[in-house]
Amino acid sequence: MSVESKKPREACCSKLKLFLASLAFVYFAKAFGGAYMKSSITQIERRFDIPSSLIGVIDGSFEMGNLLVIAFVSYFGAKLHRPRLIGIGCVIMAAGSFLIALPHLLQGPYKYETSVSHNKDVNSTESILPCLSNHSMTEADDTPDLETKTACEKAAGSSMWIYVFLGNMLRGIGETPVMPLGVSYLDDFSREENTPFYLACIHTVGILGPMFGFMLGSYLAKIYVDIGSVDLDSITINYKDSRWVGAWWLGFIVTGTLILLSSIPFWFLPKTLPKQGQEQSESKSKSTELATVAEQENFLPEENQEQEEKEKPVTFQELAKDFIPSLKRLFRNSIFSLMILTYLVAVNGFIGMITFKPKYLEQIYGQSASKAIFLIGILNLPAVALGIITGGFVLKRFKLGVIGAARVSISASVGSFCLLAIQVFIRCENAEVAGLTVSYQGAPQVSYNPQTLLSQCNMGCSCSMKHWDPVCAYNGMTYTSPCLAGCQTSTGTGKEMVFHNCTCIGEMMTPGMNTSAVLGQCPRKSDCDRIFKIYMALSVVGSFISACGGTPGYIVLLRSIQQDLKSLALGMQTLIVRTLGGIPPPIYFGALIDRTCLKWGTKQCGGRGACRLYDADAFRMTFMGLITGLYFLANMLWGGLYIKIVKRQKKLALRNQAKENGQEGNGAVNGHANISIAKNKEDEERTGEESTI
């Protein structure tokens, strides 16, 4: 081969590698932003004083954005300039991130609830007689007047969360073209044997995004939300407190800037590339005229080749007219339909888990929000990255076909499910909070009735039962406020405030012992740390095993689709899975988790805010039980899918053998074979995708 003929091929290979690197960077950037959003869920919930069900709606708005445009982007985008559409999507994603951060600039300083503040200065802590001074706090239990309600509209729980909702929706709209158009573009112009490895590389680089996203979320969760605008010495809470809000808004500025930068390379990439490894054709006639010719590969059924030549749309009207027939052809593919259902169930469990796992680690194992986010980012996500690259390596090393890929995927799914089922039974005891999880005498008793917060030891204080301002006694028990602990005096200011002569603490102590309490909730018992390490070990191993099946499962999907329907299929998969697997789970998971709340916070106007304390056992059984049930159903569907793939493969082998026998036999046998094939013509058309497996 001449040097001149090699140069164009080397140039196109370098452009393919540039696209691969650019797509990997976008996967990193969008995953970075998405993971940071997940890590900020708790901070946003506290900042706007909203329940978990509403935070689930906000989280699901990303998928709502996808729903608006995914079908059209996937179908029409495949016929247009795919790299530039990806670049446009990145710009929209960046705009959404900046919009999410906007409420911080429009709102005033964050005012957390406290039972020891009396004046209107931000986060003041002047009370020196907690019990006696709280007579005025009983007003908070009454219905607020109109003026107070009006003030509440401008407080933390106002409608400012709508900006976060809309910004997250914009992120979803912008992310739409990245996966279907990026993967189809890469698969169209790379060698078939290289595609699994390329996909594994992209997803592995992409998984680094969540790692950095969660680490950024962990770091910013320790920085106070109003950093630079308030006196931090006057703040009476720390980052371990359930009322603490970190600098959540700052992370969205960082992620938005990174996503904006990732869009730049796509403006300079070509619309199409020659197929990797193919000889350059001397006559380019029609292939240069239509960009979509590059999408037609060897996997098309022979009977559809002539149809493809006849149906090359050149106008928007013709593209639109061809959309419904293409959709019908796609969903007649039974393997595709069953795989979508399997993904749908599994994604429901995964989205619910990843959305509320930081909250789960906080409430069940007593971890701070910052540490919970950090551990997910530094332990679980690297395990997922290693699992994804391992799955891709296994496919490439052993050159597995569709059945082999399905075996790897279902084995990984079953293995991770077994470890998940064990995690349901790993637990710590409820935090000891007087009147909520234990009685004032220390006996275990979970109560959803606020009246149990009152006891003989604090009756004379006329305390508010709505506020959450926990103090930790030296006996290891937490009280929901200094007043409800019966504390008579206090010393110190800010985080160093100590409450003394607490009558309720005295009931639990022998005479002469310390009856003081300090701000904050008491830490869990020492054995909880050991149990938590066991849980995290199982969680990390399960994450690795589950991720090993990711790339093989994706290859099963790709190889089960006709070539001309690939972009549409990936788009419809994204549409269906994200619509029914991305929007509902945060909402119904959040609503069910809200039902396990023992103590709700209180807004400035006296309304119900975010939950401060959950019933740990009820939370665990609700959260882990629901996830385990969904993954069990997904495994059952995987089993049915595998059986169907094997049957179809055998059917296709028999059909090919019949054709070969028909060609070798005499005229009579050949004619008989042709009649048999003709009788099955309608079935072949319905399942034309079989030849792609």
TrEMBL record:
The keyword Ion transport applies. Keywords: Cell membrane, Disulfide bond, Ion transport, Membrane, Transmembrane, Transmembrane helix, Transport. One of its GO terms (cellular component) is basolateral plasma membrane. Its main location: membrane. Residues 663-693 are annotated as: Disordered. Pfam families: Kazal_2, OATP. It is a multi-pass membrane protein. PROSITE patterns: KAZAL_2, MFS. GO terms for biological process: monoatomic ion transport; sodium-independent organic anion transport. Residues 451-506 form the Kazal-like domain. It is found in: Cell membrane. Belongs to the organo anion transporter (TC 2.A.60) family. This is Solute carrier organic anion transporter family member. It comes from Lates calcarifer (Barramundi). The lineage of its organism: Eukaryota, Metazoa, Chordata, Craniata, Vertebrata.
